[in-house]
Each structure stands twice: as structure tokens, then as C-alpha cells.
Amino acid sequence: MTLARRALLAAPLLAPARARAQAPAVGRTARILCGFPAGGTVDVTCRLLAERLRGTWAPQVVVENRAGAAGRLAIEEAIRAEADGTTILVSPASMITIYPHLYGARLRYDAQADLAPVSPVVLYPFALGVGPGAPGVTDLRGLLALARARNGLNYASPAAGSVPHFTGVMLARAAGVELTHVPYRGAAPAITDAIAGQIPMTINVIGDQTEHHRGGRLRMVAVTSPQRLPRFPDVATFAEQGFPDLTADEWFGAFLPARATPALVGQLNAALRDAVADATLRQNLLQREFEPAHTSAADFAARIRAETTKWGPIVQASGFRPEE
Asked: Are 267 and 25 in contact (CB under 8 A)?
């Protein structure tokens, strides 16, 4: 390894150490709002992030779980909070880019007007997994053949209106098969029922399925990533199996209340850049199949606008409307 390459690899790892030597940007305890229960992937990401921001962003950074309404309660709480940097929202993309099309005027927030995007913190693909309820299925072709033979299959997702939900909708339309969505309250119960054979297939964040795939309890038959994942070379992408439109990733992103000053947004953006460069944090995220991510606040806002536009016709074509 050359000296130049060593310097390049070492530079990001030194940044958090330098940041920790400075006074915290916020002088009192800050909280990261999580819209989902403890133990899930969003919660774990929030806790890892809180650990790296403690002492740099604020003297103490705690995670506050405001679970309910499929992530919307945390967003509503963030909007009401003081815009002084003591409240950070970490949310999956769905609540920001898809929910406006689902709930319309019933949504009690305008994601693009009421929140200040700071940066994505992780990117990740989804996986389609099958259990004993889909006997003999080893790839997507076999699963679709089973769906045709049975005149349809049910599939589980962690929530109605989520990206996994609409991934199933797009697959059904592209393959010309009947797939009936069954929403669950999170990934864990959806995967548990798939492993038990109560439902034949589930679409979830890949990190929620990987240990079950390794243990033979669940078999991942397709991933939404552009290429096969190095840690799972046996799992083909949707694109490889004839469905290029099902190539996508989702993000967990950090936000402040919209009233936050541009200077404060910039400070948090820099703190997050240093946090996701930390070697321990990166290792913990990569073990969960999350790719640490960081962009400028402006680029993140542009991505949100583009994805919100993209999901509009997909949601409309699905005909789905939430009951609540």
C-alpha cells in the first residue's frame, strides 16, 4: 500500500477524533426521534448514530422512540420541536416521499415544507425472501411459477404504504401474476410468519433477513440492488432475473425542523459526515448490510424531490388507499 493511499484511508478516520476535541455544537442534551419500536433497523441505526454524535453534537444524545402511525408520529413531533439542534429526526424514505401520495390532505405534515433535510445516513436494498410456505422455490422464476399455479400468493411487508409494499405491487404488474399484500407491524413479525410457513414470501430490508438466509430458515431469491451483494453472491438481483425496474435502494435520512437556520443545518451535516466516517460505526452498519452515506443538504433535498415525483404514478396506479 502506498503512502498516499494510506493517507487517503486514514483521513476519514481522523476526522471524528478531531471533531471530538471541539466543544459540542449544542450545549444541552439532544434527542434523535425514531418513529419505530426499539430493536428494529431504524432504531439500531439511530442508536449507533447517537453514540457517535455524543460529545460532538451535544453533551448527551439520546434516542426517543415515538412509534406509531407507521412512522408519522415521530415526524409530527419533530415538526413541533424547537429548531435549536436538540431534536433530530431520522426517518426512512417512505414517510417522506411516498406518504404524501397515500394520505394527501389527511397527512398532518408537508415533508418538503416542514422539515429541513440534512443528509442521508445509510443506503440499503430490499430482498424478497421465501419460507416453507413456498416449497421448492429457489429463485424468482420458481416463485412466479408457484404464484401462477396457485392463482396468486400473499406477501408480507413491514408496513402498508412502504417501499417493500409497492415493490410487490410493481413485481406483480411486471410479471403478470396475482400478489396480495399483507401488511405487518414491522419486519420482525413478517419474517417470523414467513419462517413459520404462515405466509409464503416477504419483502423487507435485506439486513432483517440475512441471518435467517444464512441459517437456512428463509431463502432470499432476489435483491433490489444494482449488482449482487459481495456478502451474498448466491442471491441474484431482480434485474438479472428480468425485472430491471425493480432496481432501487432506500435511505434513512436525518432532518431538522424547517425553522432551523442554514448554519445549523450545515453544522449537523458536517457532524454526520464525521460520524459516518468513523471506522467502528461503518463496521457496525456494514454488518447489517447498510451502506454508510452522506451528501450535502442541497443534494439530499434534490433527491427527496425526485423520489417524491417518481412514486406518485406508482402509488396512483396501485389503487391502494390506507384505511386510516
From this structure: yes
Compute the distance between CA of residue 290 and CA of residue 282 in angstroms, rounded to an integer.
Answer: 9
Name the region of 71 (left: φ>0; alpha: ψ -120 to 50; beta: rest).
Answer: left
Report the predicted TM-score, pTM, of the whole model to 2 decimal places: 0.83
**Is the pLDDT score of 10 beyond 50?**
no
Answer whether 157's CB lies under 8 Å from 183's CB.
yes
The full set of domains in the chain, from first to last, is 3-124+250-318 (3.40.190.150), 126-246 (3.40.190.10)
User: DSSP secondary-structure letter at 203?
Assistant: E
CA dist 59 and 28 (Å) reads 6
**Extended beta strands in 3-152, E state:** 30-34, 61-65, 87-92, 115-124, 126-130
Give the C-alpha separation, 184 to 156, whole Å.
7
**Phi and psi (nearest 5°) for 238?**
-60, -40
pLDDT at 16 over 90: no
The burial of 136, by beta-carbon neighbours within 10 Å (0-12 exposed, 13-18 middle, 19 or more buried), is given as exposed
SS3 category, 223: strand
Q: How far is the CA of 93 from the CAs of 103, 161, 164, 172, 254, in angstroms?
A: 15, 11, 12, 22, 10
Cell of 272: 454526520
Find the largest Cα–Cα distance for the chain.
64
- Exposed (0-12), middle (13-18) or buried (19+): which is 18, by Cβ within 10 Å? exposed
- Among 2-16, 25-39, 186-200, the range scoring the smallest mean pLDDT is 2-16
